[in-house]
Amino acid sequence: ATGQRFLIASDGMFKQISDMRIVSLIRENLGTPERLVEQLCEEAAHHEYSDNITVVYIEINE
Length: 62
Fold this sequence. Notes:
alpha+beta; 2 strands; 3 helices
């Protein structure tokens, strides 16, 4: 359905970024999924413990 969003990511991202921060980044980057994925990966990679990071984000616009 139009307006739905899906975020699929590895634990390497979810262990590093809080749910609240993820929601905030999604809201800040509505309509720019490429930028959102870049920001999520960059933020997760800047933490002390770094695991491999995989992020897939989908916005349904039709």
